[in-house]
Amino acid sequence: MSSASGESESRPFGAGRGVYDVDVSDPRGELVDRSGLADEDVRQISGVMQALGALRDAEEKLSEASLRYMKLNTTDMRALHFLIACHNSGVVATPGAMSVHLGISTASTTKLLDRLERAAHITRSPHPSDRRALAIAITADTRRSAIETVGRQHARRFISAAKLSAEEREVVRRFLVDMTAEIALDNVPWATSAD
After folding, report:
1. Partners of 134 in beta bridges
2. Alpha helices in the chain (DSSP H)
């Protein structure tokens, strides 16, 4: 079925009425009580939801392109980002710290490090002050490659934040912190159940 403009079914929502529009995603008010809001407020909130959806889509596409370019999986990329942050902060990265950061077991961390070392993304060496530990570092080539491609693209978010006034940045920050808290899965039975 095509619209008058010739668009196919792949774009079933008209301009400004994407899947994140509250009237499309929750037309009967089963999820959100809108009774105290004016139509204009609902329209503006839908616009915010659509903008967040577009941001999430752009971040997912960037993440997928990053993984393809670096030929790594998500955990590998998170590990390299951790190593770059340690390098930039003058912190010696250890397998234990990486395990905690990634939320994976010691055995999984060892497998991850073996894989990254075989691919020449990291080096392992004796820890400079703890004889029981190893120091993990990202190789110069991998660091340069990650920074000049993926890192540079991610850093463009700074440009958007820099365009805002100090007051606007604080509003956006509070909004994002509050939204994160609202959707957090802490104590949500269906999300934490083992079944």
Report:
1. 126
2. 22-25, 39-70, 74-89, 95-102, 106-118, 140-146, 152-154, 157-162, 166-183, 189-192
Q: Are 8 and 2 in contact (CB under 8 A)?
A: yes
The kind and range of the H/E element at 124 are: strand 122-126
- Phi/psi at 129 (5° precision): -130, -5
d(C-alpha 45, C-alpha 52), whole Å: 11
SS3 39: helix
For 126, phi then psi, to 5°, come to -60, 140
**What tokens does 33 get?**
């009580």
Residue 126, classed as helix, strand or coil, is: strand
Rounded Cα–Cα distance for residues 56 and 189 (Å):
25
Token duo for residue 156? 């463009």
- The whole-model pTM stands at 0.73
Taking the chain (195 residues) in runs of 10, the rounded mean pLDDT of each run is 46 61 86 90 90 90 88 92 95 96 96 96 94 93 90 91 96 95 88 68
